[in-house]
Amino acid sequence: MGSSPFLIIAIDGGAASGKSSTSRALAERFNLLHVDTGSFYRHITAELLRRGVSHTDSATLQATLAQLNFSTQLDGRSARMLIDGQPAGDEIRGEQVTSHVSHYAAIPDVRRALLGYQRGQVDVAREHRFAGLVMEGRDIGSVIFPDATLRFFLHADPAERAKRRAAEGRADSIATRDQLDSSRKTAPLVCPPGAIDIDSTHLTLEQVVEKMSALIAEKLR
Ligand code: CDP
Ligand code: CDP
Questions:
Q1: What is the 3-state secondary structure (H, E, C) of the chain?
Q2: Which residues in the chain land under pLDDT 50?
Q3: Ligand nearest to the CA of residue 154, numbered in listed order
């Protein structure tokens, strides 16, 4: 009997489409490293805001990005990005970072700064003997891992997504972020050709996880 393949599961989708919840459940079920790339963009945004670097000041932005040092710390099954040895604080989920993150994420230099680091999570997963990784974001199936074992794209009606965020008690600019993320030139939010499109508007989290799990189990057979 051959050994199981190293799994790379890509999950993309708009804000509050269910990426983090499903990724965490799949990580648990299949012993995968969970990588939330949105938290990386949020952490960089918090750091640039802290340093007073505007997303419109490309020279200072470039110079600052070149100085940042990224490393990884495990928190259970999740990969936490450290910047210069420091983990992200709670403020990355706050209103200020949430309203700025899409502006920084649209800048090619910012995306380039994270590209190698994100792909390097495969080595982190192997080193810690995970069976693979599940990575969530906006461009995982299109740019980071176009050859992933499985690429999912989660859809849900904007009104349903706004309801989900409100139920979590979080202020969020879902429509504005989706608009900025979908219309940027570099790595826009799109369902790439060949990805498995799941509309979760009328599905429970468990139903979405079951659908994905069945397809993953098939790959392991
Ligand atoms: O959790 P939620 O869907 O609300 O957002 P997130 O995944 O934490 O991502 C925050 C922001 O980071 C997004 O609105 C994008 O602007 C950016 N992002 C990105 O551009 N590319 C990724 N792979 C992940 C996030
Ligand atoms: O990571 P992303 O921003 O895409 O979404 P999330 O934080 O995983 O999900 C937002 C909220 O919607 C969470 O409270 C989930 O429990 C809930 N939810 C879901 O993700 N999927 C469903 N089918 C139904 C509810």
A1: CCCCCCEEEEEEECCCCCHHHHHHHHHHHHCEEEEEHHHHHHHHHHHHHHCCCCCCCHHHHHHHHHHCCEEEEEECCEEEEEECCECCCHHHHCHHHHHHHHHHHCCHHHHHHHHHHHHCHHHHHHHCCCCEEEEEECCHHHHHCCCCCEEEEEECCHHHHHHHHHHCCCCCCHHHHHHHHHHCCCCCCCCCCCCEEEECCCCCHHHHHHHHHHHHHHHHC
A2: 1
A3: 2
